[in-house]
Amino acid sequence: MDARLNLFASATAGKAFKHMMAAGRAVKESTVPAATQELVALRVSQINGCAVCIDMHTKEAAHAGETPVRLNLVAAWREATVYTEAERAALELAEEGTRVADGAGGVSDEVWERAALHYDEEELAALVMHIAFMNLANRINAITRQPAGDYEVGQFH
Length: 157
Hints:
Blueprint: H1 11-28, H2 34-48, H3 51-63, H4 68-72, H5 85-98, H6 109-118, H7 121-144
Keywords: Oxidoreductase, Peroxidase
Pfam families: CMD
Protein name: Alkylhydroperoxidase
């Protein structure tokens, strides 16, 4: 499969990506654990069907030491026993923040409160930005049909 558009050859996309990458770095530098960030990125990408992001975040997480069991169970995290309560709260926030069209109220107060039990205001801000960023990246890739499978760890760092 070929991409509909070569985003790396576009001056407009290049300018936008420069800012997107800076936003991504700000989230990466937050105190939200890197493992949690990768799990959230993976779950959002699964929901949105973004193969290139699933490829990227699975490989980055594995490279950072994430176990195959935890990576393979992200799609069924509610039934899995391998995640901490904090990770579960972040995954739940990611799901409701991604499925806003499915739930008329967006993120429920109960989900927000569970996340707030484990993350301070700065970490919640980082999680919100990360969820929104991943949804943006997923949509860009879905619209342009970016192919998956060739990502190499660290490719965009």
